[in-house]
Amino acid sequence: MGIIQPPWSSETYGFAIAPFLLVLLPFLLLCILCPIVLLRMSRLRLPPGPPAIPVVGHLHLISKNPHHSFCELSKRYGPLIFLRFGSVPVLVASSPDTARQILQKHDQIFSWRPRIAVSSYLFGGKDILFSQPGAYHKLLRQLAFSHLFGNKRLQSFRPIISSEIRQLLCNVSHASNNVFVREKLYESTFSIISAMVMGESTKKINFHSPKGQSLVAALLEVVDLVGAFNVGDYFPLLATLDLQGYEQRSKAVSQILKVIFGEVIHERRNDRENRDNKMEDEDFLDALITVSSDQKDVPITDSHLVGILTDIFAGGIDTSAATIEWALAELLKHPKTLKKVQDELSLVVGSTRLVFESDVENLPYLRAVVKEAMRVHPVAPLLLPHAAREQCQVYGYGVPSGTLVYINVWAIGRDPTVWGNPLEFYPERFLQSNINFRGQHFELLPFGSGRRVCPGLALGISNVYLMLANLLHVFDWVTLGEMDLKEKFSSICKLADPLVAKVKLRVPRYLIEENTK
């Protein structure tokens, strides 16, 4: 490499060195600011952690699978570790007790969300997941519960869900050769969520932008972006450079969502004006529009509505599909376990009907399989990040205000002090156990706990049980080659290679084709 000449030696060199200085200057500023931040933190008794290097902190220790890296660090430094990513302090909890401290004992402090750039570009803090605690967030959760996730509403959705599951089974049976499982699950979960949110008329809705971009593709892009490692979040002075292109991607997909959902909202408003009774058969979208018109203390604009709908659709589509795919993949890798589930289904359900929701309570082994899949393969291995609203004490250690907090539920599920033979897929461990995943048992937290527990928990797990049970009851499954359970990390952790299999009917065909469209 040649020696860089001073910029005053020629105009050519001056222009050539400008981009270099543009990148170097923020790092020089960080070198000045980091000691100041570290000096303030040094006054606290911080949790243990590895030595940091200047400016970078501990980022050099984190792999493309951060939940794996956090797990290895916790084995060395303990279940509560302190790290620094650039200028951002980070706390990682990797045991049931440390998770309980954060999500239960200090829930009010840690129920805040970090301000990550991607969420700002996508939602502007106007969605459910990344909005901060307060009147707006409380209102959104109340609306979601009363119009989507409450017991009464869930019961009213059962005919819709049953119809869509039957359609899923029909689509799988008609697959010409190989079944691309994830693709079929996306189609089904999308239909279920859209029918619940927007009513039966959803079949007539165009979920494509004028340029032909599909809503499902945009939602999956959102999931990837939210889980992406954005260097600008940890080095604020580099954020404006958008070195990884996340700002550009986020703004592009945000525009697609605004166009598609904006048209849906516009059409619904026009439809409501022509209704004699606007409250008749009001669905979640109607409720959002009503609130946006009536709220004075908590203003809600169409931008808010787009963020809320994005949360509901993205969360409902990808999490359920990923959980079912993981469970099915593990069963195909363990034929004896698969046979036990199918034997239970044959005994309880028989061969003259499909699996009903009322059957699930009589299928303990199926429920154990789902719990075991969630233990070994939590689809949100670090949950969504939390943030410390203020300085506090956890186990006698000081936690600075603004600390980014991760709950490593992936590591908890593999902790040998919590689970016997944790790397073995063994559903039997749950047959004599009262552990559930509703947030009270910190050994198993696929949906989180406390104020930030997933609002769609009841719906999500019910759909997973029912869809997986019917897929196993209706079909025999055969893999194509050796199973590879390698994962791809994001906000939703999925199989790196989507599951592809062959199927053969186990029940009469008329059961799945009856009343399908």
Structure, explained:
It contains 19 helices and 11 strands. The termini are far apart. The chain has a single domain, classed as Cytochrome P450 (Cytochrome p450, Orthogonal Bundle), CATH 1.10.630.10. The strands form 4 sheets. A 4-stranded mixed sheet has the order 1-2-7-4. The protein has a 3-stranded antiparallel sheet with strand order 3-11-8. Strands 5-6 form a two-stranded antiparallel sheet. With 517 residues, the protein is α+β, with helices and mostly antiparallel strands. The longest helix has 32 residues, at 11-42. Mean pLDDT is 87; it is low at 1-25.
Keywords:
517 residues, alpha+beta, Cytochrome p450, 4-stranded mixed β-sheet, 3-stranded antiparallel β-sheet, globular, disordered N terminus, oxidoreductase activity, acting on paired donors, with incorporation or reduction of molecular oxygen, Cyt_P450, monooxygenase activity, Cytochrome P450, heme
Topology of this structure?
Blueprint: H1 11-42, H2 66-77, E1 80-85, E2 88-93, H3 96-105, H4 107-110, H5 117-122, H6 135-149, H7 151-173, E3 179-180, H8 181-198, H9 215-226, H10 231-234, H11 236-239, H12 246-273, H13 284-294, H14 302-333, H15 335-349, H16 364-376, E4 386-387, E5 392-394, E6 397-399, E7 404-407, H17 409-412, H18 457-474, E8 475-479, E9 487-488, E10 494-495, E11 500-505, H19 510-513
Rounded mean pLDDT is: 87
The poorly predicted ranges are 1-25
How far is the first residue's CA from the last residue's CA?
67 Å
> In CATH terms, what is the fold-level topology?
Cytochrome p450
Counting structural domains, the number is 1
Q: How are the strands of the largest sheet arranged?
A: 1-2-7-4
